[in-house]
Structures are given as structure tokens and as C-alpha cells.
Amino acid sequence: MGFMPIFCLGIMLNRLRELILPIAEAFQKTLWGIEVLSSGKSSIVRVYIDSSNGVNVDDCANISRQISSMLDVESFLPERYVLEVSSPGLDRKLFEISQYAAYIGEKVRISLKAPFEERKNYSGILTKIEEYDVVIESGEEEFTFPFEVIEKGHLVYEE
């Protein structure tokens, strides 16, 4: 899997969000997040939808058809792409600082864009959000990371 230059990817994600948000809302779903991954000559567009009532296969199929039709008309993605629509799942990826705030007290795993104390990966209990900082407790240590240095974060589901 490759990646696009961050500037181009940011513009593409913003445009996708603008186009997909009304579709998700029309089906009474929340647009949880969007990922675009390049793989050779094609791309994978992952759209995560959520709802307090849950998300089922029919929801994903119906929304996928609507998004696919819209993307064919808009034609700003690379010629070849695969569209995947799903729920965020139990180990949901966290895309926005507000999503982190909703899971205080839960276990999270965070990957940083650059190493901090010679590590890029941290996991622990999400204890609080301070403005634009994410605070996790791991063992006896507490770590505070500015949201902009987090490459990706997600919940850790434990039975």
C-alpha cells in the first residue's frame, strides 16, 4: 500500500466528506470516517458509517450503491478504485478529536507520526482530552499527545 502526498490526500478527503455526508444522513447514519489507500494503479476508498441503531449489511450495500453512483459522476478519484462501506466495528478507528472524547475510560492504541521516547506505538486507558491533546495512562505512566502528532488511533476491544 502506498500513499498520496498529504496535501492532495487532505483535499480529496475533504471533498469526499462533503459528497458522502448527505448520503449517510439520508439513510440516518453518521459518517464515522473515510480512508483512501493507494495500491499500485488502483485505490481503496473505505467509508465507515455508524448509527445508534447499528449498521447492517443492507445499510452498507444501499449506501455503497449511492456513493458509487455519485463518485462515477464526480470522477475526481483515480480511474480504478474499490469502494468499501462498513461499520467502524468494536475496535473502531478514531478519526476526530471528538471521537476520542466519546471514549474516555476505554483502552486505546495510538500510533504517532514520529517517535516519542524512541517509540511510535502506545496503548493504555484514554483518561481525558485537554483542548487538542489526548491523554492516556499506561501502567504507572501518563502520556499526553497533541492530536496532530497522532497518525492513527483506535479502540482496543477486550472481552
Report on this model:
By secondary structure, this protein is an alpha+beta fold. The longest helix is centred in the N-terminal third of the chain and has 21 residues, at 6-26. Helix 1 packs across helix 2 (57-74). It folds into two domains: 6-86, GMP Synthetase, Chain A, domain 3 (2-Layer Sandwich), CATH 3.30.300; 93-155, SH3 type barrels (Roll), CATH 2.30.30.100. It contains three helices and nine strands. Strand 7 (133-138) and strand 8 (141-146) form a beta hairpin. Residues 1-5 have low confidence and may be disordered. The strands form two sheets. It has a six-stranded antiparallel β-sheet. Strands 1-2-3 form a three-stranded mixed β-sheet. The protein has helices at 6-26, 57-74, 97-101, and strands at 30-39, 42-50, 80-86, 93-94, 107-116, 119-130, 133-138, 141-146, 150-155.
Task: Please specify the SSE layout and strand pairing.
Elements: H1 6-26, E1 30-39, E2 42-50, H2 57-74, E3 80-86, E4 93-94, H3 97-101, E5 107-116, E6 119-130, E7 133-138, E8 141-146, E9 150-155
Parallel strand pairs: 2-3
Antiparallel strand pairs: 1-2, 4-9, 5-6, 5-9, 6-7, 7-8
Helix pairs in contact: 1-2
Radius of gyration (Å): 17 Å
Named CATH architecture of the largest domain:
2-Layer Sandwich
Residues in helices, as a percent range: 25-40%
Runs in which pLDDT lies below 50 for 5 or more consecutive residues are 1-5
Structural class: alpha+beta
Major sheet attributes:
6 strands, antiparallel
Number of helices: 3
Please provide the ordered H/E string of secondary-structure elements.
Answer: HEEHEEHEEEEE
Total separate domains? 2
According to CATH, the homologous superfamily of the largest domain is RimP-like superfamily, N-terminal
Which term fits the overall shape?
globular
CATH class of the largest domain: Alpha Beta
- pLDDT averaged over residues: 90
Q: Cα distance, first to last residue? A: 31 Å
Overall number of strands: 9
Topology-level CATH name of the largest domain: GMP Synthetase, Chain A, domain 3
Question: Could you give the order of strands across the largest sheet?
Answer: 4-9-5-6-7-8
- What fraction of the residues are assigned to beta strands by DSSP? 35-45%
